[in-house]
Each structure stands twice: as structure tokens, then as C-alpha cells.
Amino acid sequence: MTPEESVLTLLSLGDAGWGDELLRGALLTIEIALVSLAIGLVLGLATAGAKISHSWLLKALASTYTNIIRGIPEFLIILLVFFGSDQLMISLGNWLNYDGLFEINKFVAGVLALSLIFGAYASEVFRGAYLAVPYGQIEAALACGMTPMGAFWRIRMPQMWRYAIPGLGNLWMVLLKDTSLVSVIALDELLRQSNIAGETTREPFMFYLAAALIYLLFTIVSDYGRHRMELRANRGVRRV
Amino acid sequence: MLGFDLTYFEAKYQVSEAVCQVIGPVTPQGFADYCPRFVQGTFTTIEILVLCCLIGLIIAVPMALARVSSNRLFSVPAYIYIYVFRGTPLLVQLFLFYYGLGQFEVFRESFLWPYLRDSWWMGIIVLSINTSAYVAEILRGGIVSVPQGQIEAGRAAGMSGSLLYRRIILPQAFRIAWPAYGNEVILMLKASALTSTITVMDLMGQTRTIFSRSYDLEIFGYAAVLYFAMAFILTYLFRITERYLNRHMAYR
Lengths: 240, 252
Prior knowledge:
Oligomer: heterodimer
Radius of gyration of chain A: 22 Å
Number of domains of chain A: 1
Order of helices and strands of chain A: HHHHHHHHH
């Protein structure tokens, strides 16, 4: 077999190659990223709401959460959530006098950790976007007889979006790359699949390179998507 | 080299012991039991951070200049370099270089192999390359936002190319980029924890080793506190240097 042929065989789909394993890993990576994005966005909005609120308790809680997450490594957070939820389940089992083996789902632990990270950073983006909408517009809306809720949904939200997209786009890219960290808790996403493939075939370089190219492809697609969303969000704004 | 290594490691060990002698009695038992390991790990993390900041910056400056160059021969490769290293996860880069390079005879037989085989050196190399891409992008932002009038004024005063860059553009670009650079250094502090996956014994590596023995969650808590403290100190240092850099703009 020539080198080209052997590469093609190794990357092919089916039993002979590892292509299907890599693809499955890539799909799981996207799945993890999307679920974490959804939860993280909700978490980020809620935390931003707490930061803007007038309650000192909510404010203190929200800023403690963001500062802690921003000050410790993502890797540590993932391990902490994984082993932490594990031990929590064990003590919960003991408390309920349950004898069997409780095991927290790796997917749940990974997603939970990534959402916590995303939410902390997103809350800052949302807070900035909220404050970027001039207050005069809200006053104008109220003067026109809109309810505060109506002013929020129809005036502030559409404009917040415009300020938030660049920041959220960056965070999405970070999230996409951070999904590779959950391979350390043995979740079979893209990096771990290429890990296994590389070890089995003794061709680690090729499989890590393949993984890197797939991640790069995700980045390129995300970049394009962000560009389109920015264009759409800014369609009402005059350009220089 | 070996002699230096030994004295250095010896010194690190002695210092860790001394530090633990002092702080041991006032820290919780769970920490005090493993104190020398935590302190040594912290030292290694700081080592990696300082070295990567320096090497990363040395690569980043020419890379940023190439990126803003009007010559496509420079700007296109720089763009690709920055895009590729920012667009792929650091963990993949670490694995690719650390586990992947050994596959090739060229690397195994080169005089660099003792270094490339060593996880500490490989961690430094990959982390430096990775951060250089991010810093180059930050510097590019700084260079682009230097007001056009300044450049015109410099040209009018008779400055050309390199002098203009040295006297007018780069000093201002650094000043503009400084806060973003501070963020990047903190991100790198956190990213350095990933070197533990290729068996570097930094703070995270030591923490994972201790955890695998005691299986006590407390251990992760102590590591979190140490990382948090380092990030906090870095934030503070960057804030005061920022004030120093912008001292001519104070009270405005």
C-alpha cells in the first residue's frame, strides 16, 4: 500500500477505517457545544439580570459566581464538576439508603461544567449590551404608553442583540474549543475518538491532525455564521 | 545544563520545604499534608507562564507586523498562522506535537529530540506558539487603532518605515493593547493547566496526582484558591502598570 492509500483506508468509513468514529465524535462535540450554549445563554441572561437588579444580595451572588469562574482554569472546573457531582450522588445514595451504584452521566457533567463557564462570561456580554442601549429610548417608549415589559421586549431586546453578537460569537468559539477538555472525563467526543484511533493504529499525528482540521472547519463555519448574523442585526444601522 | 538543572531543582525543593514550614501550621490539614507538592506545582506554573509570555511576545511582534504589512507575501502567511492556532483547541495542539512528532524519524534523530521528548519543554513550545497567535491578533488591533494623523505627522517630520514603527506606532499600539494583553495572560495562566495532560507537573498536574491518591474533593478546592490568587495578583499588576503607561493621560 502506498502512503496515500493507507491514509485513505485509515480515514475511511466502516470497519476498516476510523472515519465513522471521528464523525461520530465530531457530532457529539457539536451536540455538547449546542446544549451547553442553550443552557449557558439562559444562565448568562439570568446572571446579567441579577447584576443589573437593585438587590445587593443578587448582585453579590452574581459577581461572586462570575469572578470565581473567571479566576480558575476551565480544566479544573470540569474535573470539579465531574468528581463533585459523583460524590454528591454517592452521598445522596447513602442518605436515601440506596445500595446500588449511582453514576452521574458524563455527558451531563461535561455540559453542566461548560454551561457554567459560558454563562459566567456571557453575563458580562449581556450586561454590557443592556447598558449600551441608551436609556432615552426606554423613556421614549414609556412616554408613548408602552408597558415596561413591552419596552424591554420591543425596544431593548432587539438592540441588545446587536451589541451582544460579537461578544457571544467569540464565546461560542471558545466554547467549541473548550469541548475538547471533556475528553479528559472520557466522554467520546472528537478529541477522545482521535486519541483512541491514534493509539490503536500508532498513527497519532495523522489523527490529531484530522481532529485539528475538523475543529478548524467548525471555526470557519462559525466565523461565517457570525458574520451573517452581524449583518442581519445591523441592517437597520447606517454604515460609514 | 544538567548541573544547573540539578541545583535549580534542589533550590526549588528547598524553597518549597521552607515555605511549607512557615505556612504549614496555619493552613487546613488537607492542604498542609501535601503542601510541598502544591508549592512546587505553583512554581512550575509560574515558570511556564513567565517563559511563555516572553517567548510568545517575541514571536507575536514580528507576526503582528507581518499581519498588517501591505505585502501579501508577509500578511497571508501571518493570517494563516494566527487563524490556525486560534481556531483549533490548545489541547489538540498539545497532543499533536507531543504525541504526534515522535512518529517521524526526522524529529527522533534530530539534536532537539531530548527537548521535544520532554513534556515540560513541549508544553512551553506549544503554549508559546498558541499564545503568540492570540497576542499577535491583539497587537494588530493596537496597531490598527493608532490614529492615522499620528502616522501622517510622523511621516511629515521625516520618519520612515522602521523609525516610524519604533517611535510612533508600536509604543502607542502596546499601550492600547495592554488591557487586552493582561486578559490574555490570565487566559494563559488558566490554559497552562492543560499541560498537565501531557504529564507536566504544574499546579494542575500535582493536584491531579494528589487527588488520585486521596480522592478528596478538597484538593481541587485548594488548587482553585491558588489559581484564583494568581489570577487576582496578575489582574492587580496589570491594572497598576496600565495606570503607569497612561500616566500622561491622567486627569483627563
